[in-house]
Amino acid sequence: MLQPVTEPTIAELSAEGRVGVSLPRCDVPEAPLEELIPKEQIRTDLPLPEVSEPDVVRHFTRLSQRNVGIDTHFYPLGSCTMKYNPKVNEEIASWRAFSGLHPYQPEETVQGALRILQSLERFLCEIGGMDAASLQPAAGALGEFTGLLIIRAYHADRGESHRNLVLVPDSSHGTNPATAARCGYQVVKVASDERGRVDLGDLERHLSDHVAALMMTNPNTLGVFEDQIQEVCELAHSRGVQVYCDGANMNAVLGICRPGDMGFDVMHFNLHKTFSTPHGGGGPGSGPVAVKSHLEPYLPVPRLREEGGILRWNYNYPKSIGRVHPFYGNFAVALRAYCYIRQLGPEGLRSVSEDAVLNANYLLKLLVDGGADKGLELPYPAPCMHEFVLSAAEHKKATGVRTADIAKRLLDYGFHPPTVYFPLIVEEALMIEPTETVSKETLDAFAQALLTILDEDPGVVKNSPHTAPVSRVDEVKAARELNLRW
Amino acid sequence: MAYLPNTPHLRAEMLSALGVESAEELIDRQVPGKLKFQGLLNLPAPLSEMELLEELERDAACNQPAGDMLNFLGAGVYDHFVPSAVQRIISRSEFYTSYTAYQPEASQGMLQATYEYQSLICALTGMDVANASNYDGATSLAEAAILCVSATGRRGIVLSGAVHPAYRKVVETYTKGLGSNIRTVPTPDGVTDPNTLGELLAEARSGEEPPAAVVIQHPNYFGCLEDVSAVAAKAHDAGALCVVCVNPISLGILVPPGSCGADVVVGEGQPLGSPMNYGGPLLGIFACREEHVRRMPGRIIGATTDAHGRRAYCMTLQTREQHIRRERATSNICTNEALVALAAAVYLSLMGKHGLRRVAELCLQKAHYAARRISELRGYKLAFSAPFFNEFTVETPVPASRIVSELSQEGILPGRDLSLDFAVGNNGQEVLKDARRPNFLLLVCVTERRTKAQIDRLVEALSRYQPDSG
Amino acid sequence: MEFPEDLRYSKDHEWVRVDGDRATIGISDYAQDNLQDVVFIDLPEVGRQLQQGDIFGSIESVKAVSDLISPVSGEVIAVNEELPDAPEIVNQDPYVGGWMIVVQMDDPSEVEELMTAEQYREYVEEL
Known about the structure:
CATH architecture of chain C: Beta Barrel
Number of domains of chain A: 3
Order of helices and strands of chain A: HHHHHEHEHEHEHEHEEEEHEHHEEHHH
Oligomer: heterotrimer
Radius of gyration of chain C: 13 Å
Strand content of chain A: 5-15%
Strand order of the largest sheet of chain A: 1-7-6-5-4-2-3
Helix content of chain A: 25-40%
CATH class of chain C: Mainly Beta
CATH topology of the largest domain in chain A: Aspartate Aminotransferase, domain 2
Shape of chain A: globular
Order of helices and strands of chain C: EEEHEEEEEHEH
Low-confidence stretches of chain C: none
CATH superfamily of chain C: RNA polymerase II/Efflux pump adaptor protein, barrel-sandwich hybrid domain
CATH superfamily of the largest domain in chain A: Type I PLP-dependent aspartate aminotransferase-like (Major domain)
Low-confidence stretches of chain A: none
Number of domains of chain C: 1
Largest interface: A-B, 203 and 201 residues
Structural class of chain C: alpha+beta
Number of helices of chain C: 3
Radius of gyration of chain A: 25 Å
CATH class of the largest domain in chain A: Alpha Beta
Distance between the termini of chain C: 14 Å
Strand content of chain C: 25-35%
Shape of chain C: globular
Number of helices of chain A: 16
Strand order of the largest sheet of chain C: 1-2-3-9-8-5
Structural class of chain A: alpha/beta
Helix content of chain C: 10-25%
Largest sheet of chain A: 7 strands, mixed
């Protein structure tokens, strides 16, 4: 239930003397503070609020009611795979036998956890067609970073450190070029052709022995399958270039095809997308990386190895790129992904992709058939894989209503909007990924809502949302008049 | 099939609308046959929910959680009391099944909670602005170093030897691609000596790597308190910025780095309301001075108004981020640790001014009690004389590895064997010089969860080891 | 959309007003319209030497950031101090109040390479 009333901040609920916790008395002999810590290091003022537990709970509960999630709304954010988060996984992750483990406790005391991690590594390799994996990266962007560092180390090891360029499709997610720059690479864009796929000619022109890597997503961000991917990889390999797969869109191809079989050398997965772990409002996620055997020596340490029947963390990998996480990655997220894969099995995973593709194509048809005369266009022809991109540019020309406005109006109809203005190569883009965990009824209702909006009074749409907890948020003011803390 | 709402009948209707016989047909129009995987993936057969629970219970039975043992392990992840309300709130699925607030009108709850988190972190650290989170303390630290490089135009990074060794490794990896040079300040006395630092900075300045950042941890990895003001002053004298990595619980009782000249404060926020979770997920705290706000990595939430003039929140300064600036972004981070930050906001709201102080005091007193009793044992002494908060390093009469291994079999985790971090040939020489034998160092942590009886039991167990017991 | 006749325009959407060997530079009405509400502007310091084609700053709206590219070579001799605190001036008055920098040109003939208002209008219509 969304409440259109301003919520005070927790600081505004504060009153001197209020206490939100009960703590025990000190049961050891106490020494005066000044004997333990130098006086000048003792804090005299701690400006935190003072709120009772009932008020804290009411405050945050009311905030939750001003928030939309998968459990409340159809959430077709393209490229984010907002699928249902199984509750049994939450249950298991809450057990003390998992949540109460310290990363430095002896390996003998955590064999259950280590077996789960080792199994997940193996599952991901099987799913991705790869030979070895690391669960250390805490998110997709960090997985990409790890993958590129691995490629960098590989080239350096072969005396090819002069390779200083990374090729990235113009349709790529922003993390791809940002990550490449972080690794010290210069980023070069490769054009997409009229079918929405990487232009082989443009790719060939850019491939040289100064290129270290090509980063691709398959299906790509337009929801289109790069059907020439094998040729792309062969072409890249012939010039000594390594090919990286951004695995954000794996939901389309589970059990159907594998990046390793396509020719990719290294990839990352997003456990919080494909493998059902919750998005958390922006994390925690997990971005494991998987590689072909020629890149295995460079994986982050430590790595799991069985020694005398006991699984242990091993640091003896001299060519490793080092660490990207202080411990072993987001264990509690990996645990959930493990449970999901165990529950679904190979048949279940394949059904996920089949239904993801079916749902996307069905919704695509509804919108294209109904929206063609309302200025909604499909820039790249059907069929699509698990997501698709539409352009509302014609609609904007005819009515002045922009994609941003349509998105906000969808909220009034009880739907979270799709991704908008991405990928950058499509004007007034709407990127829609329904996922497999929605019914035909939901798809029908969403299509109905979107098509209705296209016929509505532009004034109403431009001033939406009308029924959300707040009306259109002034993002310009937020940027011009910075207010980042109370 | 679990989690698939469509039935064969509904699928048939959709397929009919599409004019195809199967989803496979749609796929086959796009995926070349030569790429298609034949058969089923080699994965275990599916399990019903009941069977899944049984299977995982078997795995759980092979774990002995530190949370149920006499746990004196710290070293970056801490066993603190988490009020029940925290878990209840972050389990509300309106929060945990949502995503990044691309549409602020749909996400006012998470946005406001994150704004509150940012504000609470600023209050705690004494800094001007904070972001919505990084992955963990180590990557936060790495991002801070990168910010300093960008802000000063210099490339040298000076790291105290007393920074968490795993954090140092992460900083090395993160800065690999950026041509930065990392120098370590030796800390044979368990603290960063401002004079040693000053000399090293002078050397760096006159050499080819003028320092962009001086990085310390406070309390540091050995548990010791650093002289933040003196270190910050030395850094500034050398034209570098000062980065301080904190334990947020300690800030309940210690003067915040913001009041001591720090330019960037980072830290590990897991102690603020999250379980140990075998080391992940964690929470990267990141806060800095106003002048660096445009260089901050990660999401930042700002307060503004809506079309009716009501208070509202949204992501702001997005032009720093990857989805807009792409290769010139301040960082590539996208998904961060939002839910863990929410837990921290709830924890800090419940604790408040008095609760956090009280937790810090309990930690301090119990740790000092433990340290006193242990140092009274024959063969044991405190390795360093510097003041400490709730972690301290002990010199042991027999190799710490033996103590750790034997005591874990009786359900006691006495602490971290520092030879694992500072073995000869692995940082030991660089950090400790010849002042200590790393094999005989144990890092002990005492939180508010440890009772006097538990501490006494640890002391009793340790007393069994004597210098001559081989 | 306005394109004053007395100005010259670059293909990166900057305009130039010439006064002897001095060039005043800003961004065109088309550019500000595309960017939408400007929230931040980063300008160079007086004294900076620019080559034609150099990036002299950047301009941000909520959802986009653009480089400011110098259409001429020379030394920056004046910078509009009002803009950083009131970036919205660029939207409201791009050709007068929204001036960004003044450059003492090394080679005034570079201006001849730029488009006239007519040419720029045509160019923009093609985009």
